[in-house]
Amino acid sequence: MTWRPESNKSARPAHANPAARVTVAFDPWASSAEDALRARAQIAAGAPDPLTQQEAARTITALRDAFDGDAGGCSVLEAVKLCLLHQLAAPQWLTDAFASRYASVTEAAVRSWSDPQAFGEYWPAGTHLAAERKRRRQQRAIYAEVWRLVTTDPERKVNHDLFEEVGEQRAISCSGSQADRLYYAYLAEGMPNPLDARGCLMGEAAAPSALAESPIL
Question: Which of 144, 199, 151 is nearest to 32 (CA)?
Answer without folding.
Answer: 199
